[in-house]
Amino acid sequence: MSRPDGRACDQIRPVSFTPNFAPHATGSVLVASGNTRVICSAMIEEGVPQWMKVQKVAGGWLTAEYSMLPYSTTPRKARDSSKGKVDGRSVEIQRLIGRSLRAVIDLDALGARTLWVDCDVLQADGGTRTASITGACVAVELAARRLQAAGLMKASPLRKFAAAVSVGVVAGVPVLDLNYEEDKDAAVDMNVVMTDDGQFVEVQGAGEESTFSHEQFLAMLELGRKGIADLLAAQQQALATLA
Question: Which stretch of DSSP H or E encloses residue 200?
């Protein structure tokens, strides 16, 4: 199968992490996955949500917000603020980001603090939610390092690293890390989130007016595992340069 950008079916797009992209955030990174670019930031706020106080839940909390900037797509995407509410897709994605990060973070280690993760899409070419998860994990680690250096945190709350990637079936063939051109024509679309010890956090998959076989499902999962291993390696390589 020939892909639009010439990649092999089991090959992720070129990925890079530019650290400290948002200087006022505790930790931040610009993650680029092919032509998709997302600013991921992490900031610590003293205090926890009211429901935690009422229910006497110990530890801290992590919450995520996701948005696509107006110029990230063609045509222009209206801001949620102009519509008076966050659209359903953004709500779904920010919940996914939050679940994915809470799965690998020791909330007790945060203390009575809230860790805010913001993911803002600068340029969208498919895989914005998966790039957000992958980049946000790096931003959280950078935030933890800064807090440790300032003596405000003893150890990073990250128990594991997590990354995410899209897979799908295009023209009858399972492929890894779909760009927009592939995604819009995919018969099956799936997002896979995994940890650095090979555990699944979440798998989201659906046929787009189509069905898929058990064999195709397993093939997509295996592609996802391979792609996430490559992304986790890229995360560590980027962080190693800052050690």
Answer: strand 200-207
Order of all β-strands in the sheet with 200-207: 173-176, 162-170, 188-195, 200-207
Diameter of the chain by CA atoms?
56
Amino acid at 95: R
Q: Are strands 61-68 and 113-123 parallel, antiparallel or unpaired?
A: parallel
d(CA 167, CA 226): 11
* Residue 4 maps to a domain: no
Residue 171 within any structural domain of the chain: yes
CATH number of the domain where residue 140 is located: 3.30.230.70
Where in the sequence is the domain holding 79, given as residue range(s)? 15-240
pLDDT in tens, 181-193: 999 999 999 999 9
Amino acid letter, 200: F
| Tens-place pLDDT, residues 209-221 | 899 999 999 999 9
Bridge partners of residue 32, in order along the sequence: 16, 37
